[in-house]
Write a structure and sequence with these properties.
heterodimer, A: alpha+beta, Immunoglobulin-like, 4-stranded antiparallel β-sheet, B: mainly beta, elongated
Chain lengths: 136, 130
Amino acid sequence: MTCVTFRPNSLDQLTNELFRRINEDSKTAVRSTKTDIYKNDKSLVFEMELPGYSKTEINVSSKEDKLTITAEKKNDEKNEVKYIRKERLEGKIERSFIIPEEYDLSKTSAKFENGLLTITIEEYVKQEREIEISVK
Amino acid sequence: MSASKDIVKMNKTENWESEFKLNESIAPEVNIYETENDFFVIAFVPGVKRDLIKVRIQNDKLVIKAKLNTDENSEVEFIHKEREIGNYYRELRLNESVNQEKIEAVYSEGILTVKLAKSENSKPRNIEIE
């Protein structure tokens, strides 16, 4: 059995830490956005719904085998208005995907049209390699 | 029957509305806010083209219809699917605080913004003190 010593100071710290995290999370409001993934001829295609963002507010990046999409409103002018109904939260969005090794993340292209982000990742080109080994 | 009024004009050669099936449609999310003189309805309709959106006032209701072009992807092999298939349809009942003669709609980057002017008696007004 473990004996837990009650230490008000550390409990305070703990709850503070907990609430700080919750506050931070709701500020950045990280959440997902609907995405379809399909295979095309020689590529992998992502279609992600990002209504209301402009091209400059969307960032697509990759690191090793991870593809990350972030979107954030630069300046929200609607701060002064009174909301009557809010079915969709607008804020920062971040989403990552691990890409299978047969696709080449260095050959990624993206376009944004009508609130829909389309990302295309090309397949690795299998190079025909032939090495002659001399037989002694 | 009350008069219906088109706010966003569409391509007349295409009659996509007739093939619109209500039971197969998606209700887009809406945010509604107000300013001093207007109400704003923001409908999230990603993936649709501007000329395939119809906004109208019908029997005191704001009706939003948008057609999604899904034919392009019919041949592909989906690995993961989150987006719903169908067209967008949403209706919102308007009360007397909206001036139905003064409605404007704008579409940009997957968002339809409908501006509804407040009727005169629902606007805030200052009363002069004599």
